[in-house]
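User: Predict the complex with manganese (II) ion.
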Amino acid sequence: MQSSLLNPVTQSFFISDLHLCPTRPAITGVFFDFLRGPAAQADALYILGDLFEYWAGDDDDTPFNQSIVAALKEYSGRGIPLYLMHGNRDFLIGEQFAAATGAKLLQDPTLLDLYGIPTLLLHGDTLCTDDVKYIAFRTKVRDPAYQQQFLAQPLAARKQIIAGLRAENAGEKQQKSETIMDVVAATVDAVFRRHGYPRMIHGHTHRPALHHHAVDDKSCERWVLADWYDRGSYLLCDAGDCRSIAL
Ligand code: MN
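Assistant: Here is the predicted structure with manganese (II) ion placed in the model:
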């Protein structure tokens, strides 16, 4: 037991798709407990997108949003590196939020040397290439010029536009097949190939699993993070392996 006291903890935590919003206070509580509890043991915490159900801009300082900012600031204030990647719902999170929370914004994708294993971090939406309509939408809204124009509108107007999009989306989602909303195998292979294998961690699809892929005779693994709709969970990776832990 003594060695565990002498050796620094070396483990990284990954979460995504919490979809935090004021209408689901229980899961926000689970998140706060997670930050003060298990996540305090991490070397680094990576939030791989969709922390929030939606994000209208860093100036949207509702009491709810402020409570999340405060919790993240407290967390990063302990000296634990905190990383944040945009999801398809909170891609408008900006530098102001990053500065307020102490989080470092990560590009999607980001290649990480995780205890010696090259590991590609993504939100996961870019793997769902069968959803042609979404990919076109993504290209549009990720354009910096588009975002600048959008963020120049008053907050109330932005929230109204987002509410409209969300309502439209909810209707469309029911019509889209399960397959269209999942990753495309050929895209996964191509991404492994482009970034040099052998491990990928992403969320977005809400289909938590460990998938094994043989790409160009290399054995690769793809970890899909769980959403936090029914309960919280995180992926813990250390020098040995990764494992999913429910809260
Ligand atoms: Mn998503």
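The chain has one domain: 8-246.
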